[in-house]
Amino acid sequence: MIELKSVEEIGRMAVTGQFVGELLAELSGVAAVGVNLMDLEHHARRRIKERGAESCYWDYAPSFGRGPFRNVLCLSVNDAVLHGLPHDYVLRDGDLLSIDMAVGIDGWAADSALSVVVGTPDPADLRLIEATEVALEAAITAARPGGRLGDVSAAIGEVARSYGYGVNAEFGGHGIGRTMHEAPHVANNGRAHRGMKLDPGLTIAIEPWFCRSTDRIKFDADGWTIRSADGSRSAHSEHTVAITASGPRVLTSRPTHGATSADTTRKPATAS
Exposed site from 165, 189, 216, 264, fewest CB < 10 Å? Predict the structure, then answer.
């Protein structure tokens, strides 16, 4: 069942989305060469607790995982693209890091993700990240009232192909609101003018993710971390978006402080 949210309810989701966007921006600034993934995880745990929010990941136990996730971030490095399990790993120069998080505040959830390079960037990695961001923007633009869900999916697939990347259809976006995962499924490829009608009040998480040289994936032994099947690098971008009468509204916008979407490189940590 798909629940259309009222203007007031979308406003409450936007409160959660603002926190998610701010924390993601904060975490992307903390991520640097020499930083342990668990430092990022504990930083996020502390900030979520301070805000009185609840992680949507902590008790997340889908069929493919091994027990509840028991972390508040998905941290995926290099060839890992989704559901990266935080662990004792120190970021190295040139690592490509994807950070994904979803929280609930006062019963309303928001979900977002970004990818950054720490230290010295490989231009191919920056291009890969750019492709996910361009695809996300195209999909948001397509998420207009009166359109079709296939318009959103087709926009993502078209950008992927224009950059020369394949699209994996096993994992994509989803509805969101009172819980992290609601109907409908939002595929990362599809046919325009097909699928359910986009009515005001629909709230969805749109999340294009691409691998550099394959559209196939594999799972780590932990049952969570999803990697490119050929070991090529991967990137992931995501926003929670509401369909409104006046057009799409991004609920998880991040403060940029003068940066642009292309500012995806994080410098090495310096000694204090």
Answer: 216
